[in-house]
Structure prediction request, 417 residues.
Amino acid sequence: MDSETFEKSRLYQLDKSTFSFWSGLYSEIEGTLILLFGGIPYLWRLSGRFCGYAGFGPEYEITQSLVFLLLATLFSALTGLPWSLYNTFVIEEKHGFNQQTLGFFMKDAVKKFIVTQCILLPVSSLLLYIIKIGGDYFFIYAWLFTLVVSLVLVTIYADYIAPLFDKFTPLPEGKLKQEIEIMAKSIDFPLTKVYVVEGSKRSSHSNAYFYGFFKNKRIVLFDTLLEEYSVLNKDILEESGMEPRKDGEGDSEEIKAKVKNKKQGCKNEEVLAVLGHELGHWKLGHTVKNIIISQMNSFLCFFLFAVLIGRKELFAAFGFYTSQPTLIGLLIIFQFIFSPYNEVLSFCLTVLSRRFEFQADAFAKKLGKAKDLYSALIKLNKDNLGFPVSDWLFSMWHYSHPPLLERLQALENSKQD
Prediction:
């Protein structure tokens, strides 16, 4: 990494860290004030008044719970909007990542809120109803219901929800698609389709992922990941009056400087190496293991919720002296009582995630992609202004992916071989 890129990365990570500190501090202060001044019982009473205006009395607890959720998520969206605006149009804009206009951003925010409510409210009403009628073993039925919902959402997200926000197009026929299909077949990955998502209209950050169950797997590539496909590269070439050229063609210093400064993305071989890493997660069962861990944790939480939900002192501590609404019980127990446990669990999952990343890198090695993955990681880190140096203790607690230098070191021996 040259000194200029190193300095850009340092400044970007400094800005992001500062933003994370202040936004996190604000969230903690906001949450504390809400608890101290009785924000939760006040919002519950306000929800009851709105229900009363519509002719629903206190016996319609589920209806009141849905109004509470709507008001709570609306409050959260409005208080978080300034921070999101600052992150997008100040920090990301300053460092060259933001591709959105203010109009696009606001339209996107409204659309996200509406889609969230369309999913959250029906699911929550059914969950509350199951808890109400489930008897002594309601926690089993509630867990099974959330399991089914999560699997359905994972299945339909990329086909029906994500296209509401981004444009997905099939990867054109050509060498890259052919090589992706060959690699998938070599490891028995049941690939059905390969899509390119137009992520460049939001940000110049890049990504790739796969989704689907059983024999219906699909791969999604961000256009910013593909050097030959990225709109950002084309825009820079057009603005500079340059025509696409082969590597090394032309000897103008000005042209060389412009080519050097353009968004790189990855070459086809490097894209295949990145996909080799992602498919490694599937082949090694990481996705299934994460689902199992998540559902075991979910079952444990519902079981403990069943044990604690009858304790009136928990509700009284949060300002509910005469009633014990089920939704409020879920909020108190899952968000506050489980908070220490959630921190420990989060750390354990971070450690496991880093282990999975090393294993996926090792899988890409076995596919003969070590050299290309090595160069792809460097390019992606540079394109995303990742800082290559990390404090071991900080990264161990916060980073779900190992720092770049650790991953490169693990790949180095195979690369030399």
Residues 239-261 have pLDDT under 50 and may be disordered. The radius of gyration is 25 Å. The chain is about 70% helix and 5% strand.
